């Protein structure tokens, strides 16, 4: 039996529908139209053929393909579209599993077994934020996709990366290269969506100050003195050190118990720094109840870890992933450059 509650849509997107999606770019208009059409085809085939599928008679036709792959930069509404697909299908009785790629990578089951378990209970699997920063995880991902497809399951996925740019397509085995470079677009309908980062338009609960260290510290101290509740002031160096000495779950339990978190002097000087900060910020952003975030830095987040400044496919992949973390920081905090900061 499927694990209870393990494959539900996140609470953040509990009300996401096609009607509530607000396209701001021509590709977003095209994406929502194609996603709605695909949902209709899947609902027709999956609903009508559910019992046939359980007995092995279901086949994903060329009209439906084995899945939908929505790809584009951060903040263009890809997860909203995926959640809308989930709600559209579950609303007409089609069982759908929804999971983040991190669940796939952390799951103790082998990827082939996990894919068969999901396919045996859900005709459709939604996989959010397919990542590319670790070759071992990509091996797990490809095996999961291949097994899910062979079992007749339909995949709906989002990613910032086109399949040809996965690490495995460049450093993996010939078998993985063939799948990613030649078979992927035959197996899945790929929708490219573009646009501006919607998170920049959201109301911000927190605040950040960019400029000289002493001045930004004074600005944040002044705000900290007025905030009530359970608060914590920590330097970025101390926070990154804590990610090495404290298990991630325990560290996040401590941080999520706060009402406000103040992080002073964020800098990213290495790939390790980027990964550790990424894990903390992403966990804060995706939590149902997170502290209000405040931070200081000498440079804006967009300059912390730029893909074009990195050498090697691994570092560039992590930097691309870090772009999403930067987008989330802009969703959580109003970024203020102090007048004395260099332009």
Task: From the structure above, extract its key features.
15% strand, Rossmann fold, five-stranded parallel beta sheet, alpha/beta, 10 strands
Q: How would you sum up this structure, described in words?
A:
The relative contact order is 0.12. Helix 12 links the parallel strand 8 (260-264) and strand 9. With 343 residues, the protein is an alpha/beta fold. Helix 1 (26-48) packs parallel to helix 3 and helix 5 packs parallel to helix 6. Mean pLDDT is 85; it is low at 50-62 and 168-172. The chain has a 5-stranded parallel beta sheet, sandwiched between helices. The chain has a 5-stranded parallel beta sheet with strand order 7-8-9-6-10. It has 2 domains: 11-192, Rossmann fold, CATH 3.40.50.300; 200-337, 3-Layer(aba) Sandwich (Rossmann fold), CATH 3.40.50. The N and C termini lie far apart (58 Å). It is 46% helix and 15% strand. It contains 13 helices and 10 strands.
Describe the sheet with the most strands.
Answer: 5 strands, parallel
Number of strands: 10
Supply the number of helical segments: 13
First-last Cα distance: 58 Å
Element layout with pairings:
Blueprint: H1 26-48, H2 50-54, E1 67-71, H3 78-90, E2 96-100, H4 101-106, H5 111-121, E3 124-130, H6 135-150, E4 154-159, H7 168-171, H8 174-187, E5 189-192, E6 206-210, H9 213-224, E7 231-235, H10 236-245, H11 248-256, E8 260-264, H12 271-286, E9 292-297, H13 313-332, E10 333-337
Parallel strand pairs: 1-4, 1-5, 2-3, 3-4, 6-9, 6-10, 7-8, 8-9
Helix pairs in contact: 1-3, 5-6, 10-12, 12-13
